[in-house]
Amino acid sequence: MATELSTQDAGPTDEMVADVFQRGCTSRHVLESVTGRWGVLTVAGLRDGAVRFNALRRRIDGVSEKMLAQTLQGLERDGIVVREVRATIPPHVEYSLTELGVRVADSLTALIDVLEGAVGEVTASQRAYDARHDGA
């Protein structure tokens, strides 16, 4: 019994400590899934509540059906999105965020707000950069 207590009191092991900078860390894989091109838009698109697949696809301009399906599956696996099938005729499928997904969406939408608000600044910076490098 003393051995059990000392093992429990030893603190977290290397396997239990999340470090996004480590190649095999689960947090890195989830970060890649969430921050990928379609992951950010999918999570942000679900922030306002449950949405059917086609409505979400219409909201995310440019995403293919295949990419959205793959993105949703990955986010569901990671615990960010929940897929609910309603037993109606025809079947009705909705996607929504989990509690974790809402926390992630809040952070992502804050970033989106910063970027949308800075479009003028970014455009000016891009033009200045291009002007300096086009003549090189």
Overview of the structural elements:
The chain is mainly alpha-helical. Helix content is 60%, strand content 10%. The chain has a 3-stranded antiparallel β-sheet. It is globular, with a radius of gyration of 21 Å. The termini are far apart. Residues 1-7 have low confidence and may be disordered.
Quick summary:
With about 140 residues, the chain is mainly alpha-helical. The chain is about 60% helix and about 10% strand.
Gyration radius (Cα, Å) is: 21 Å
List how many beta strands DSSP finds.
3
Q: How far apart lie the N and C ends? A: 72 Å
Let me know the average pLDDT.
Answer: 90
* Largest sheet, strands/sense/barrel: 3 strands, antiparallel
Helical content stands at 55-70%
Give the strand order, joined by hyphens, for the main sheet: 1-3-2
Shape designation: globular
Weakly predicted, low-confidence segments: 1-7
* SSE-based structural type: mainly alpha
Order of helices and strands: HHHEHHEEHH
Kindly estimate the percentage of residues that lie in beta strands according to DSSP.
Answer: 5-15%
Number of helices: 7
Sum up the structure in keywords:
mainly alpha, 3-stranded antiparallel β-sheet, globular, disordered N terminus, 10% strand, 3 strands, 136 residues
How are the elements arranged and paired?
Blueprint lengths: L1 H8 L16 H10 L1 H9 L5 E2 H7 L5 H13 L3 E6 L5 E6 L1 H19 L1 H16 L2
Antiparallel strand pairs: 1-3, 2-3
